[in-house]
């Protein structure tokens, strides 16, 4: 049975309209983030999203974790539909343009306690470790892969800026929560319409309001990646003046290397 709405139709109906509105507002509002710094950060996030997510989907789709309804997609590259690759670009834009409405900043140095860095790295790696264990069983396979995939990125981000992220936690939570809730609704609608189907065998069977917890977790962690990454990128650029000593050190090391 052909699905009543295609994956491309989901983009046109649910993703592009709010994306365009939020982008227009960010461009027009004086208090919103816009310009080279946040937009260059967004470009980096998009590139990372495509590179890092492509292997995951091309592993999980042939493994039978999810599949697409008849006529739901135009074509695939590798095992992933073109529309999925498009979403790797559209989701960062949607989430970023919402973040730009409520900039999360604090006057904090790039230097944070070593213990905070170790806690951040350790927490992220622990999540990855739990995920690795869960991939060994079919019912927890999808959940395990989401955690295994998310853990290393969380370790890097929390290791770099856990203290700063805590300082801006209130706007950070709002920036993550709103697009996540919206994408949960879109995902639930798409599942109901049969645009994509989530495997019962590869999920734990907990699906509040019809949305598998694995799907909910995926959208949550991807938005956490995006918001934390953009917030810390802008923070880094704002505090770049703290790094001249590192620049001088790199110059000296390069000079010694040339002398040899």
TrEMBL record:
What start and end residues bound the annotated signal peptide?
A: none
Top-rank taxon of the source lineage equals Archaea
Question: Which pathway does this chain act in?
Answer: Carotenoid biosynthesis
Q: Which InterPro entries match?
A: Lycopene_cyclase_dom (IPR017825)
Gene Ontology molecular function terms on file: intramolecular lyase activity; lycopene beta cyclase activity
State if Transmembrane is listed as a keyword: yes
Annotated compartments:
Membrane
The regions listed as transmembrane in this protein's record are: 6-27, 39-61, 85-106, 118-136, 142-165, 172-196, 216-236
Q: Which UniProt keywords apply?
A: Carotenoid biosynthesis, Isomerase, Membrane, Transmembrane, Transmembrane helix
How does the entry describe its membrane topology? Answer: Multi-pass membrane protein
Q: Tell me yes or no: is Nucleotide-binding among this UniProt entry's keywords.
A: no
Single GO BP term: carotenoid biosynthetic process
In which broad location class does this protein mainly occur, judging by the first location in its UniProt entry? membrane
Naming one, the record's GO cellular component terms include:
membrane
This chain belongs to the protein called Lycopene cyclase domain-containing protein
- Organism, scientific name: Natrinema hispanicum
């Amino acid at each position: 049975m052909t699905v009543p709405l295609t994956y491309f139709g989901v983009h046109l109906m649910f993703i592009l309209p709010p994306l365009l509105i939020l982008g227009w507002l960010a461009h027009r509002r004086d208090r919103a983030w816009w310009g080279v710094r946040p937009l260059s950060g967004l470009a980096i996030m998009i590139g990372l999203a495509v590179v890092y997510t492509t292997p995951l989907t091309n592993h999980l789709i042939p493994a039978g974790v999810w599949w697409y309804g008849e006529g739901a997609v135009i074509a695939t590259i590798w095992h992933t539909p073109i529309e999925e690759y498009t979403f790797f670009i559209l989701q960062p834009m949607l989430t970023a343009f919402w973040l730009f409405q409520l900039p999360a900043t604090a006057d904090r140095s790039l230097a944070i306690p070593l213990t905070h860095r170790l806690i951040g790295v350790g927490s992220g790696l622990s999540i990855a470790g739990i995920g690795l264990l869960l991939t060994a069983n079919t019912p927890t396979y999808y959940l395990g892969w989401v955690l295994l995939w998310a853990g290393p990125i969380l370790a890097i981000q929390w290791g770099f800026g856990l203290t700063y992220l805590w300082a801006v936690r209130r706007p950070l939570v709002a920036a993550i929560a709103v697009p996540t809730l919206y994408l949960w609704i879109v995902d639930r609608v798409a599942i109901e319409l049969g645009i994509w189907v989530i495997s019962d065998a590869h999920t734990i069977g907990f699906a509040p309001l019809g949305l598998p917890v694995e799907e909910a977790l995926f959208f949550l962690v991807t938005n956490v990646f995006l918001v934390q990454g953009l917030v810390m990128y802008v923070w880094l650029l704002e505090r770049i003046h703290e790094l001249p000593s590192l620049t001088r050190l790199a110059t000296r090391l390069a000079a010694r290397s040339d002398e040899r």
